[in-house]
Each structure stands twice: as C-alpha cells, then as structure tokens.
Amino acid sequence: MLRRSTLRAAIKTEVLAKNRRDKRYSHRRRLNRVAEQQTLSVLSKQAGAIGKVRSFDGLCALVDSVLEPSTRFGELHASKACVRLGAKLNLIPSAV
Q1: Which pLDDT belongs to residue 3?
Q2: What DSSP string runs through 5-36?
Q3: Residue 67 lies in a domain
C-alpha cells in the first residue's frame, strides 16, 4: 500500500482489495463488486480533500461522511480504508 505512487493509486488498491501481485485478497472475496465500484468512484472524487487532511480523525470523519450515504461499503471496510490511507498520508490515530 505504501509503495503506491499516488494517493489515487492507494485508494484504488485499498477499495478493490488487491495485493502486491494485483490479486484480490481471499478474505475480501465476498465484498460486493458494485459497492466496490461505487466506493472507488466516491473516494477517487474526494482524493484532493483526502490528501489535504492533517489528522487521522479528520480522515476517518471525511471517509465516513462521503461513504455512508451513497455506498454499501461496510463500516469495517471503511475503517480499514482509513488505516491504510492514513499510513499512506503518514497519519496515525491518537487513540485506539
């Protein structure tokens, strides 16, 4: 994830659940592909705003606010996306 050159590439990798070999992670096979495409579209459009976030909490709030009304991407997957995108942006949570 950290090796992806751009934030948009990191978003795509995270949402589509791809590993280094560009294969889908086995534990994420059950994710709805339509929901993944919707999520990818929504987060890609927000890449500029995501890149400007300066705190992990702000990142999670932004991701939650843009995903909740329009996608069926689950809460667990949204929080995982926050962790991985936060790593890309060098943001760490202040509390667990």
Answers
A1: 58
A2: SSHHHHHHHHHTTB-TTS-B-GGGTTS-HHHH
A3: yes
